[in-house]
Design goal:
This protein has 606 residues and is α+β, with helices and mostly antiparallel strands. The chain has two domains: 304 residues, no CATH class; 148 residues, Histidine kinase-like ATPase, C-terminal domain (Heat Shock Protein 90). Helices cover 73% and strands 8% of the residues. It has 17 helices and seven strands. The strands form two sheets. It has a five-stranded mixed sheet with strand order 2-4-5-7-6, covered by helices on one side. It has a two-stranded antiparallel sheet with strand order 1-3. Strand 4 and strand 5 form a beta hairpin. Helix 2 packs parallel to helix 9. Pfam families: HATPase_c (PF02518), HisKA (PF00512).
């Protein structure tokens, strides 16, 4: 609950910081309206000029601050918009000096008009420096149509809003006319340019700031026309509603800068989907908006209508309709082409699905056939395994019975012929008996090796110290008799393991240590068990004859020995048995040794 409350508080603080500037600007507009309402005409002039100055300065500051906070690719654009607001501020300061200090009526054009014109130029440069405008899509016929519609709207605005009224006024000089036309083109062009940019480019996170700039330039254009009309008709008053429009314009520019800085600090997760919705909405609304603008300009200039104006306006409207129709036809063609491509891709997808179903059916048939073959082969292997198991038991029984008979009858023969046998005959009988005993041992080891796989794993939790003691207990007499220095270091621990398999492996390693220290003067054997990261290490070390490490892998193979049987008796199965038993437990075994220095066999268990 506390985390949710913190999250809600954070969202509230974020929303407040986003709209703080807008709230402050609205409060300023309210103060301005109250001051204009209660002030006299002379004071109203001061309030207007100072309010315009403060608004331009505040907008320039907000744009400069945004330029420092946004991404590097947007910084240049907002610096240009800062220059635009600064240009207006310089023009306003010149206006204030002439209008308030010198108390002289401003001529048209004048020096401050140059700075006001710079505002329009720098705004357009700043918009074109935004990354969405620089990284635009390839120019298409739709973009040409957009440009044509905007040009028609601009032409209607210039002709009806400035050119025709000026031509009907006999006091207007050609210089004034051309300056007025250029000024009108710049003023209306600024709005139409930003509107066209919003319409043409994909703005992503900058869509909202760009929309605010478009609305601001719209107010800029309408205010200029209204102000020019009031001056021409000599109906301008300090408390006219048109005066507040400049404050609204700069408020929107400042809000756009603040919004851009706010967005630059946050991730827009669903910006792609929002942008697509906005583009579709703007695509549908924009032609209608241009028509509304042209009709509004025509209605506001109805007093100056002449046959020439009607014919010119009708021509522009017809051209607008032709361009709009051609643009819509191209869009429809592109839409139809995309629809055909979508249908083709859908058909390919359906064909691929059909092929996938066929492949899936074939896969199921092959899987069924393979499972059947695997089942048959498993049954055959199981039968062969059972036959091999029975064979091993039969062979063991059938081989060990004659060996017992050979050994028994040889022993009886030696007893009956005692005193009558020569030394050579007794040696032969001894070899017969030793051979039968060795064969019996070999058969037992082979059975033990083959039984490892058949014996089930019975994992249980055992105490390692107890298991080591049980393994070493049968050898205590030999250890004492031979004076072996026995060291046992086993950390108190329990492991989950198959006790029989581990005992078998440890028993064989201890027997090897006892066997290969037989000729050592002071035999030493150590059994050490300790924990390690992720497992247990159990090592059996002796100071016996050792071996060369080049035979390391050789000694763990079945029937592989490094010494003759008369030196160190054995069958060559013990270490192979150890490796197989430990690998069944999921562990591994290895050895380290030097000839004449002994060996260390290490078991690692998981």
């Amino acid at each position: 609950m506390a985390a949710e409350a913190d999250k809600i508080n954070t969202e509230i603080d974020t929303t407040r910081s986003r709209w703080a500037l807008a709230y402050a600007w609205l409060a300023g507009l309210v103060v301005y309206a109250v001051a204009i309402y209660i002030a006299s005409n002379d004071v109203q002039r001061w309030i207007n000029d100072l309010a315009w100055t403060v608004a331009a300065a505040a907008a320039a500051y907000c744009c400069f601050r945004a330029a420092r906070q946004v991404e590097l690719e947007r910084r240049r654009a907002w610096l240009w918009i800062t220059v635009a607001c600064t240009s207006w501020l310089l023009g306003q300061l010149h206006w204030n000096y002439v209008h308030l200090i010198l108390e002289v009526q401003q001529p048209f054009p004048s020096l401050n008009q140059i700075f006001y014109t710079g505002f329009a130029l720098f705004i357009m440069v700043g918009v074109m420096q935004l990354p969405e405008a620089r990284n635009r899509e390839p120019f298409t016929l739709k973009h040409v149509g957009n440009l044509g519609l905007v040009t028609c709207c601009l032409a209607v605005t210039v002709v009806l809003g400035m050119l025709e009224p000026a031509l009907q006024n006999p006091s207007v000089t050609p210089t004034f006319l051309w300056i007025g036309v250029v000024h009108t083109v710049l003023v209306a062009g600024t709005f139409l340019f930003t509107l066209s940019a919003l319409w043409t480019f994909r703005w992503g996170p900058s869509w909202t700031p760009m929309l605010l700039i478009v609305i601001g330039t719209c107010i800029y254009a309408v205010s200029n026309f209204a102000y020019a009309h009031a001056l021409l008709t000599e109906s301008y008053l300090p408390d006219d509603v048109v005066n507040v429009s400049w404050l609204l314009m700069f408020g929107l520019v400042a809000s756009a800068a603040h919004e851009q800085a706010w967005l630059s600090k946050r991730e827009q997760a669903d910006i792609a989907q929002k942008t697509q919705v906005r583009e579709r909405w703007l695509e549908a609304v924009m032609p209608a908006l241009l028509i509304v603008i042209m009709i509004g300009v025509a209605l506001s200039s109805s007093a100056t209508f002449t046959p020439r104006v009607i014919w010119l306006s009708a021509t522009i409207f017809i051209l607008f309709a032709v361009i709009l129709g051609a643009r819509e036809a191209w869009i429809q063609s592109e839409s139809q082409e995309l629809t055909d491509q979508l249908m083709s891709a859908n058909q390919q997808l359906q064909d691929a699905n059909i092929e996938l179903r066929h492949s899936e059916q074939r896969y199921r048939e092959l899987t069924t056939a393979l499972e059947q073959r695997v089942g048959e082969r498993t049954t055959e292997l199981k039968r062969a395994y059972e036959e091999l198991e029975g064979f091993s038991y039969a062979v063991a029984h059938d081989l060990k019975a004659p060996l017992r008979a050979i050994n028994g009858f040889a022993h009886l023969f030696e007893q009956e012929m005692e005193g009558q046998l020569t030394e050579r005959a007794r040696e032969h009988l001894s070899r017969i008996r030793n051979g039968s005993l060795k064969m019996s041992t070999l058969i037992d080891d082979l059975l033990s090796y083959s039984h490892i796989d058949r014996r089930g794993m019975q994992a249980s939790v055992i105490s390692l110290p107890s298991l080591v003691d049980q393994v070493l207990s049968p050898y205590q007499d030999e250890i004492q008799r031979r004076g072996i220095v026995m060291t046992v270091v086993v950390e108190p621990m329990t492991v989950r393991v198959d006790a029989s398999g581990l005992s078998l492996a440890l028993r064989n390693l201890v027997e090897n240590a006892l066997k290969y220290t037989r000729d050592t003067k002071t035999p030493r054997i150590a059994v050490v068990c300790r924990r390690k990261e992720g497992g247990v290490l159990l090592a059996v070390t002796d100071n016996g004859i050792g071996f060369d490490m080049q035979y390391h892998d050789h000694i763990f193979k079945l029937f592989q020995r490094l010494h003759r049987d008369d030196q160190y008796p054995g069958t060559g199965i013990g270490l192979a048995l150890v490796r197989k038993a430990i690998e069944r437990l999921g562990g591994k075994v290895w050895a380290q040794s030097k000839p004449g220095e002994g060996s260390t066999f290490t078991i690692e268990l998981p």
